[in-house]
Amino acid sequence: MPDPTAAGGEIQIVVLQVGHELYGAPIRDVREVVPAESYRITPIPRIPRYIRGVTNLRGRVIPVMDLRMRLGFTPGPVTRKTRIAVVETEASGTVGMIVDGVSEVVRLPVRTIEPPPEDRTDGSLAFVQGVARLGDRLVALLDLHRVLTREDRRPAIEGGRHGAAV
């Protein structure tokens, strides 16, 4: 759950669209958002399916994951609206997350954030740390530390350093 003392009882999130659903990522962890069509992603063998590969972001090789697949959805097409949200956490480093769109940056009062519903046995809520209302829609707040595990990042980077054309 977000720190209730942060920013006077508010958190600021970037609203990510994944399919027809909205997810929130803490703005402090989002470095930038770039059009997915502008970056070539080089596939890397023997990594989890949701890791699409690596890309060259201004001279720096970073792994790129498909957030749809990571959350258990089927992959979607890359369109004009598809974005790569470049996120960075202390535990996981820098990772690109393919999302269907980025709609806005909003401030949410911490008191309006509710815990996620009880997780089903399939673990589908493992990456959600809370739920908030945004107008008439719900936004699931992502736990980026769970989404971006170190184990997922290492193979893509190692593969990117050992001969992948980026």
Which consecutive residue ranges, at least 5 long each, have pLDDT under 50? Answer: 155-166
Topology as a string of helices (H) and strands (E)? EEEEEHEEEEEHH
Q: Largest sheet, if any?
A: 5 strands, mixed
Q: What overall geometry do the principal axes of the alpha carbons give? A: globular
Classify the secondary structure makeup into a structural class: mainly beta
Number of helices: 3
Strand segment count: 10
Question: What oligomeric assembly is this protein in?
Answer: single chain
Q: What is the CA-based Rg, rounded?
A: 16 Å
Provide a descriptive summary of the structure in words.
The structure is a single chain. By secondary structure, the chain is mostly beta strands. It is 12% helix and 43% strand. It has helices spanning 67-70, 144-147, 150-161; strands spanning 10-18, 21-26, 30-35, 51-57, 60-66, 83-89, 93-99, 101-109, 128-134, 137-142. Strand 1 (10-18) and strand 2 form a beta hairpin. It is globular and about 40 Å long. The relative contact order is 0.25. Residues 10-153 form the CheW-like domain. This is Chemotaxis protein CheW. InterPro entries: CheW (IPR039315), CheW-like_dom_sf (IPR036061), CheW-lke_dom (IPR002545). It comes from Caldinitratiruptor microaerophilus.
Produce the secondary structure layout.
Elements: E1 10-18, E2 21-26, E3 30-35, E4 51-57, E5 60-66, H1 67-70, E6 83-89, E7 93-99, E8 101-109, E9 128-134, E10 137-142, H2 144-147, H3 150-161
Parallel strand pairs: 2-10, 5-7
Antiparallel strand pairs: 1-2, 1-8, 3-6, 4-5, 6-7, 9-10
